[in-house]
Design brief:
It is a single chain. This protein is mainly α. It has 4 helices and 2 strands. Helices cover 38% and strands 4% of the residues.
Length: 99
């Protein structure tokens, strides 16, 4: 069994010897920070005209008695962890937003 193990290790060592990671010479010469900045600039300049027409938006709120943190008494989010507390106070909870 040890003979096979040694043979396998030898074959693996010989097969991997001399192998180097292949990367393009362009990416090796550029500073990684500059590469990231260039990619960010491309993302900022990307056009999003073909996404379609905005039909409507979905706005919701949860009524609360906490007037110190929320002057109008409406929280602009609902808890996903404990929705049973927020669903009864959800404004327009019976409105269908997706058919």
């Amino acid at each position: 069994m040890t003979k096979y193990y040694l043979l396998l290790l030898t074959v693996l060592f010989i097969a991997c010897n001399g192998q180097s990671q292949k990367t393009s010479s362009d990416s090796q010469s550029k500073d990684p920070i500059k590469v990231i900045q260039e990619r960010e600039q491309i993302a900022v300049e990307k056009q999003y005209d073909n996404l379609g027409e905005l039909i409507s938006t979905i706005e919701f709120g949860v009524q609360t008695d906490n007037k110190t943190d929320f002057e109008d008494g409406i929280i602009p989010w609902a808890s996903l962890q404990n929705p049973e507390n927020d669903i009864p106070n959800l404004i327009d909870k019976d409105e269908v937003v997706i058919k």
